[in-house]
Every structure is written in C-alpha cells, then in structure tokens.
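As agreed, record passed on underneath.
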Amino acid sequence: MTVQVNITPNGRMSLPASIRKRLGLVGGGAVLLEETEDGVVLRTVHQAVARAQAIAKKYAGHPDASVDAFLAGRRTDSGE
C-alpha cells in the first residue's frame, strides 16, 4: 500500500488513522525511520525488534557467533 503523506514546514507528518490502527499506534507511539538507498522505511519498534531478532537468529548457530569469538577476530584484524 502506498499513501501520500504531507510534511508540514516544521517537519511533522501524520500517518493515516487506518495505518496507525493496523500498526497498533492508536494512542500514539514511536516509529523508527531508516534511510535506505531506495528511500525511507518506517517501522514500529516491535517490527524493528522482530527484524533484528530474525537477523540474529541466522547467526545464533554459527560457531563464531559468541562475543569472545567476535572480540578475538577484532584483535586479529587489528594486529594485536
């Protein structure tokens, strides 16, 4: 779905009520704005957390996914 949202001279914009309702932002709330090469993506905090968890899940079973392995790799990369 694509909708046009106008931005006021002071930078404010309003999300249509139907979208706010579907996203659970009826009483207000926060969204995260991500600037990409293709434009701008708005996500609710819940959506952003779910996306981060899905990305992390890909690496959870990786043998080098631990913090210690990461730090050891950084030390190796920096020549320590």
